[in-house]
Each structure stands twice: as structure tokens, then as C-alpha cells.
């Protein structure tokens, strides 16, 4: 019983790690070959992170907006 739980948990963790690795490699390649050439970059965000980024760009104005947005992006990673 305990062995089956450990095997299932390990398999689920392995699938998530593999999926994340494949996604990261795909986005890295897309950024290098497509987006960086145009001065852009793509990344995946959770919904709360995206809402925070959108709200910060809507509520600020001018140079302060860019500084605060950069600070928030650095904080998020």
C-alpha cells in the first residue's frame, strides 16, 4: 500500500518536472528565434501575476510607470 502511494507520487512529480522542462525549452527557443529578434520576450505567468502586471501598467504613468513595472518584474522573476 505505502509502496504504491510512493510510486504514484513519484510518477506525478516526474511528469510535472518533465512537462515544465519541455515548456521552458520551447519558450527559450521561441524567444531566441522569433521574439528577441523583434525586441520582445514571452514567458508564462500565473493568473495573479498577470493581473498584477496589468494593473501596474494601467495605474501608473510616465517614467515612473516603467520603473515600477521593472521593479515588479524583477521581484516576480
Key descriptive features of the protein:
81% helix, 2 domains, single chain, 0% strand, 77 residues, mainly alpha
Characterize the main sheet.
Answer: none
Care to count the β-strands?
0
| Proportion of helical residues | over 70%
Uncertain parts: none
Number of domains: 2
Total number of helical segments? 3
Q: Bin the strand percentage.
A: under 5%
Structural class: mainly alpha
- Average of pLDDT: 80
Radius of gyration: 18 Å
The general outline is elongated
What does this molecule look like?
With 77 residues, the chain is mainly alpha-helical. The chain folds into two domains: 1-43, no CATH class; 45-77, no CATH class. The protein has three helices and no strands. Helix 2 packs antiparallel against helix 3. The longest helix is centred in the first third of the chain and has 34 residues, at 2-35. The N and C termini lie far apart (40 Å). The model has no long low-confidence stretch (mean pLDDT 80).
List the helices and strands and how they pair.
Elements: H1 2-35, H2 47-59, H3 62-76
Helix pairs in contact: 2-3
Biased composition (Basic and acidic residues): 61-70
Region (Disordered): 56-77
Task: Please sum up the structure shown.
The chain is mainly alpha-helical. The protein is built from 3 helices and no strands.
Amino acid at each position: 500500500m505505502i509502496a504504491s502511494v510512493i510510486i504514484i507520487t513519484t510518477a506525478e512529480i516526474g511528469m510535472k518536472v518533465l512537462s515544465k522542462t519541455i515548456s521552458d525549452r520551447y519558450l527559450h527557443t521561441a524567444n531566441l528565434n522569433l521574439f528577441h529578434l523583434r525586441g520582445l520576450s514571452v514567458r508564462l505567468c500565473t493568473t495573479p501575476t498577470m493581473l498584477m502586471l496589468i494593473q501596474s501598467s494601467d495605474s501608473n504613468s510616465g517614467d515612473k510607470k516603467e520603473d515600477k513595472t521593472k521593479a515588479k518584474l524583477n521581484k516576480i522573476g
